[in-house]
Structure formats: C-alpha cells, structure tokens
C-alpha cells in the first residue's frame, strides 16, 4: 500500500465504509440511492458515468458509489472495486428477459479478487410492478445457493425504489454485516 | 507518470532539530518526526505546487459542474494521486537516509491519534475524489487567473519561511494553512480582478 492510502486508512473515521452499487442498466440503482437519501426521484436519467453520495445511517458514514450499468461501460466497473466494503447488486425483478445477463455479470464480480471480502446485498427491486419475480425466483436464477456464494456474506431483499419499501431493511443488513466483520464492535 | 527532476532544489539539505538529550524519545519517534518534518517541507515546495497546478491545467477542461461524474474523472484522479504520491516518496527517499515506506507505514498505523494537523489533513485531501473534482472545476473556472494568483502567494510564503532558517517552529502552522486556504479560495479578489481585467480567457 502506498503512503496516501495508508494515511487514509489510519485516519479514516472509525465507522466509515465504502459501498459499490452495481447492476444492469435500468435496474434502479440511482433511484434507490436518491430515494434512500430523500431526494426527488422523478428526474433521473440513465447514468453514463457515476454518482457519489455519502449517507449517514445509524451512526455509519456510507460512501456510496453508483456506477452506470450499460453494457458498453461495464468494463469500467473494475476501476471502482478498490477498498469496497459492501457490494449492492440491484436487480430489476420485472426484467425476466435479462436475468441471465444479470447472473453472468454478478458471477463475474464474485470472481474478482478485489471484491472477495465484500458483503453482498441484492436488492430485488421494482416489486411494485405486476409480474415482478420473487426473491426466491431471483435467488434461483442467480444461483445464490451455488458454490460461488458459499463463503460470501450475502442477503437478498425485496424492495421498491419508487415506493421505498425494503430499502431500509437492505441498508440495515449491509451496515450490520460490515460492522460485524470490520469494526468488531463486541 | 510524469518525471520530476529532484535536482534543482536548494532547500533539500534541511534537517529538523530533535532534542538529543531527551532519553524518552525513542529512535522510532525520531525517525517518525524526521519524516513528518520532511513532509511539511515538501508540501510547501514551489515545485510541488507547480506539479499540481500543471496537472490541473492540463486536465481541467473535461470537468463539468454536474452532479454526475464522468468515468474519465476516475482515471484522472488515480493519475493525480500517483503523481503526487510519486513526487512525495521521491523527495522523502532523497531527504531521509534510510527512508522505507514499510517502516513509516507501520509507524503511522501505531500512531492513529498523533496523525493530526495540517500535513495529514492535506495528505488526506489528496485521496478525496470530491475534493479533486472541485479543485479541477475551480481551475477550469478561473483559467489563467487562478494559477497565477496562487503561485505568487505560495512563492512569497515559502521564501519568507525558508529565509528565517527553517528551525522547525516557523514551518509548523501558518504557511501550510495559507497554502491550503489558497487552494480553496478560488474567488480571491486578486484573481477576480485579474479575470475582469481580461488576463484570463
Ligand atoms: N416501477 C418501478 N420503477 C422503478 C423502480 N426503481 C426504478 N424504477 C424506474 O426504472 C428506471 C431506471 O431507474 P434508474 O435508477 O435510472 O436505474 P439505473 O440505471 O440502475 O440507475 C427509471 O425509469 C425509474 O423510475 C421501482 O422500484 N419501481
Ligand atoms: Mg443510474
């Protein structure tokens, strides 16, 4: 590790963590982040770059990085892996057509060494839409009971970014899991 | 990464005074203090300031004042931190006989409560993406006026400081604060005037 990252690590406020929000385009990543932060969600356009927000949640500072998910820019995701404590994977539960794509991209992330220690929170988003897949269906489709997830701390939570349901539960799980791993507040 | 010539500096022979008579000061503490003292000096060097300004001027054009960031900012940010870190480590290696990042890193980790103050605040700020983005935006907005104003300010500060002999005491607080303030105070009257007078595009 270099000088600057050492200083950052030693000086970082105790309860600060870095969350990376990824998923296919149109999954609702930006909407989740803005809704959770109490911002207007009616004027969100597709993310071509990335957004950063620092949220304060239950005494933790969450540095959230929301990176665009269009196919052409997924290769840039790797530039955001460094020092990630938690990965939030957002799924459009109504998008059955692309659930295979969704699985492939998630599998790819799970094999990234830099994300090996990150907690994984899967938001089964858009539950308000008719025909949305349940968390069981999505878990099945993503192979969450398979070998790749054996050693991973993961959870899947049903949510609707537009209505707000489920967001708190997911964020609570994430902060709990990270704090039990990293901060060891016993 | 840009190459930096370390040979052209006059103040590199400076040493921080340590009270050799105090037997409570361990060798580790001395080593640590020596490096922190050197860091203080390095961060105030005109050459270091120029390095930052040049980078900002070269790359600020692509930055826009929108909430969403472009992917290319991330690449530029890592180039920026690499440039700065490379320069600092290069100078430390020159100025401290047996400088070892591993050793210094371990000492830093042991001194969580001690690493406060301007030097460490400034080093921390180099790792903050949001600060980087606003620095680039202010360079873009100020154009030539910005860098001219700040260069002048820093130049005067460091010359004065080194002229009093660099005994350590004078280096501690004020110049660093001015340097930091200068970087943020992008709408200083001087630079605004320069802009109004048509000195910048
Ligand atoms: N019905 C419904 N639409 C949603 C929900 N979350 C996001 N959307 C819509 O899905 C579209 C894509 O959202 P966005 O946040 O831009 O997705 P991103 O590309 O993953 O950042 C937008 O039109 C949102 O309004 C949800 O929970 N329910
Ligand atoms: Mg988005």
Automatic annotation (TrEMBL), chain A:
<dbReference type="GO" id="GO:0046872">
    <property type="term" value="F:metal ion binding"/>
</dbReference>
<feature type="binding site">
    <location>
        <position position="69"/>
    </location>
    <ligand>
        <name>GTP</name>
    </ligand>
</feature>
<comment type="similarity">
    <text>Belongs to the small GTPase superfamily. Arf family.</text>
</comment>
<dbReference type="InterPro" id="IPR006689">
    <property type="entry name" value="Small_GTPase_ARF/SAR"/>
</dbReference>
<keyword id="KW-0479">Metal-binding</keyword>
<feature type="binding site">
    <location>
        <position position="47"/>
    </location>
    <ligand>
        <name>Mg(2+)</name>
    </ligand>
</feature>
<feature type="binding site">
    <location>
        <position position="30"/>
    </location>
    <ligand>
        <name>Mg(2+)</name>
    </ligand>
</feature>
<dbReference type="GO" id="GO:0005525">
    <property type="term" value="F:GTP binding"/>
</dbReference>
<keyword id="KW-0519">Myristate</keyword>
<dbReference type="InterPro" id="IPR005225">
    <property type="entry name" value="Small_GTP-bd"/>
</dbReference>
<dbReference type="Pfam" id="PF00025">
    <property type="entry name" value="Arf"/>
</dbReference>
<keyword id="KW-0547">Nucleotide-binding</keyword>
<feature type="binding site">
    <location>
        <begin position="23"/>
        <end position="30"/>
    </location>
    <ligand>
        <name>GTP</name>
    </ligand>
</feature>
<keyword id="KW-0460">Magnesium</keyword>
<protein>
    <recommendedName>
        <fullName>ADP-ribosylation factor-like protein 2</fullName>
    </recommendedName>
</protein>
<keyword id="KW-0449">Lipoprotein</keyword>
<dbReference type="InterPro" id="IPR044612">
    <property type="entry name" value="ARL2/3"/>
</dbReference>
<keyword id="KW-0342">GTP-binding</keyword>
<dbReference type="InterPro" id="IPR045873">
    <property type="entry name" value="Arl2"/>
</dbReference>
<feature type="binding site">
    <location>
        <begin position="125"/>
        <end position="128"/>
    </location>
    <ligand>
        <name>GTP</name>
    </ligand>
</feature>
<dbReference type="InterPro" id="IPR027417">
    <property type="entry name" value="P-loop_NTPase"/>
</dbReference>
<dbReference type="GO" id="GO:0003924">
    <property type="term" value="F:GTPase activity"/>
</dbReference>
From TrEMBL, chain B:
<keyword id="KW-0206">Cytoskeleton</keyword>
<dbReference type="GO" id="GO:0005634">
    <property type="term" value="C:nucleus"/>
</dbReference>
<dbReference type="GO" id="GO:0005813">
    <property type="term" value="C:centrosome"/>
</dbReference>
<feature type="region of interest" description="Disordered">
    <location>
        <begin position="182"/>
        <end position="201"/>
    </location>
</feature>
<dbReference type="GO" id="GO:0051457">
    <property type="term" value="P:maintenance of protein location in nucleus"/>
</dbReference>
<protein>
    <recommendedName>
        <fullName>ADP-ribosylation factor-like protein 2-binding protein</fullName>
    </recommendedName>
</protein>
<keyword id="KW-0966">Cell projection</keyword>
<feature type="domain" description="BART">
    <location>
        <begin position="32"/>
        <end position="144"/>
    </location>
</feature>
<keyword id="KW-0963">Cytoplasm</keyword>
<dbReference type="InterPro" id="IPR042541">
    <property type="entry name" value="BART_sf"/>
</dbReference>
<comment type="similarity">
    <text>Belongs to the ARL2BP family.</text>
</comment>
<dbReference type="GO" id="GO:0005758">
    <property type="term" value="C:mitochondrial intermembrane space"/>
</dbReference>
<keyword id="KW-0969">Cilium</keyword>
<keyword id="KW-0496">Mitochondrion</keyword>
<dbReference type="Pfam" id="PF11527">
    <property type="entry name" value="ARL2_Bind_BART"/>
</dbReference>
<keyword id="KW-0539">Nucleus</keyword>
<dbReference type="InterPro" id="IPR023379">
    <property type="entry name" value="BART_dom"/>
</dbReference>
<dbReference type="InterPro" id="IPR038849">
    <property type="entry name" value="ARL2BP"/>
</dbReference>
